[in-house]
Amino acid sequence: MIGLGLIGGSLLRAARESGRQVWGFTTSSVDAEAATVDGFTVESGVDGALRLARERDAIVVIAVPLPAVDKTLAAVAAHAPECVLTDVVSVKAPVEMAVRQTASRARYVGGHPMAGTTSSGWAAGSADLFRDASWVLTVEDETDVAAWRDVAQLVLDCGARIVPASAAGHDDAVARISHLPHLLAAVLAAVGADGGDLALALAAGSYSDGTRVAGTRPELVRAMCEGNRGPLLDAVDDALGRLGAARGALASTGSLGATVEAGHRGWQTLQDHRGAPREPGRIDLTAPDVREALLGLGAGGGRIVGLDGDFALTV
Amino acid sequence: MIGLGLIGGSLLRAARESGRQVWGFTTSSVDAEAATVDGFTVESGVDGALRLARERDAIVVIAVPLPAVDKTLAAVAAHAPECVLTDVVSVKAPVEMAVRQTASRARYVGGHPMAGTTSSGWAAGSADLFRDASWVLTVEDETDVAAWRDVAQLVLDCGARIVPASAAGHDDAVARISHLPHLLAAVLAAVGADGGDLALALAAGSYSDGTRVAGTRPELVRAMCEGNRGPLLDAVDDALGRLGAARGALASTGSLGATVEAGHRGWQTLQDHRGAPREPGRIDLTAPDVREALLGLGAGGGRIVGLDGDFALTV
């Protein structure tokens, strides 16, 4: 485990609880000491941690912020070049590209656990953080299916459910359902505060809900959103187009019918998605079209909840 | 009480609980029958209900949707022209203007209880609906202070706290903290649903929170937002400007710093507003500058929590 913050630290704990042999490295002396006190092995250098991974054919997990990924990948290329490699960074296409350029012999599977990030650091972590969470694992033409299966087992061992997606598909989805919500919350919080104390005195549920994630630490929001620039620009353009159309309709005809009805339909779609009964199924991981089958599952809103021999068990 | 839906029906119950003699009228036979079954007097015509108000010098409360206000005001002008008059419509300047044009002899005080509206009809109401809620009462140059005091006592009797504001100040504030949140929720819900099942499968707290009020019945959202056209256009323009600036910065420099920091400051402002200790005070309702004092209280985020002789008790 390279990086022992909230996500890396939680994953280290969860992996050990599942019976795996684990060790880690972090540049944070605070996190290193805390993890050591909690009885975990923390190597004093990234090189040593990676050489140990090579010796033991371990899965290497990159759990560092996006700006530190390139440097970590260079160390992977030098000391554990052919290990199974995954990461937990919240954006996938840039990491995928960096791996292909820097550590191309690694058997890489991109990952993104959809788990809370309001606190940070080893101390905030817990082995239960990923229980019942969705965890994206990327599927690309280059994906090594055996490596994918190894990482999938690790994710399942942590109590999470796997959503297979392409790196680009993941980045487009999170731009819409995570990064755009953070930007709109920031915009709303600023417009509301500009209304002064009277406006804030009248603020009730719609405003509290709509601005809640503006309370997230700005550096976390920026890292997440700025790292997903292209897909987020598309999502913002979509939002600007819709909000501009609402503005135009309100100014010209006085009607917000199209905007409000489309929003209500979108809201209903989410409720239907969440309430829909899902058929259990299985995907043969040895089939020649396994990548298409995995991507089809994710595109349809399905998840992998277990592995049984050569089969992924799905809902 | 003209109109016996969620708000009117709750106010009728709360007023009776406070020891007042109450009666009502509604065009809904369902609400009329339900209120009658619950032991309330429901007049068979609006004219009779208003004549009774004139005889007894009662407070007339208009609790009908905005489109029905003009017709109700015409009946007030005909049958109870000089009664103390208030309303509970969610937009204030248009009602204020309609009163001046149609029932100008009424001693009018605009009102807006900031209380939940996800359900509707008499059956959804409760005497407790307004407990600890903020309730705007308008203060204009024309406001009759004695009438204002009568309406204030009614509001306090219902367990609510009074926020004094001008009609225009109220409408600007609710555009920012209620109507814009509904529009942004609609936009986000549509952009998210356009991402398909993969996006919805990955949707977590930020998306659920940001889209929650898109579940409100579209006709309620439209009535509220479309009735506040001018102020809402200003708030939407503010949001469009900020979102457009974020888009430009992300595309050109890759930085969302200004947007995210402003949003976080806005969020912090709301927390500070809510957590700030407030000094108890009093406003002399017989003072010549009482209107300025009331408006100053509301503009500073203050509320009236009681009446004591000629004084309004404030926090």
From TrEMBL, chains A, B:
Q: Does the keyword Ribosomal protein apply?
A: no
Q: Per UniProt, which keywords does this protein have?
A: Oxidoreductase
> In the record, what lineage is assigned to the organism producing the protein?
Bacteria, Bacillati, Actinomycetota, Actinomycetes, Pseudonocardiales
Q: What is this protein called?
A: Prephenate dehydrogenase
Give the GO biological process terms: tyrosine biosynthetic process
Q: Which region is the signal sequence? A: none
Which InterPro entries would you find in this protein's record? 6-PGluconate_DH-like_C_sf, NAD(P)-bd_dom_sf, PDH_C, PDH_N, Preph/Arog_dehydrog, Prephen_DH
Report domain Prephenate/arogenate dehydrogenase positions. Answer: 1-285
Q: Which SUPFAM superfamilies match?
A: 6-phosphogluconate dehydrogenase C-terminal domain-like (SSF48179), NAD(P)-binding Rossmann-fold domains (SSF51735)
Q: Which GO terms describe its molecular function?
A: NAD+ binding; prephenate dehydrogenase (NAD+) activity; prephenate dehydrogenase (NADP+) activity
Query: Which family does the UniProt entry place this protein in?
Result: Belongs to the prephenate/arogenate dehydrogenase family.
Q: What top-level branch of life does the organism fall under?
A: Bacteria
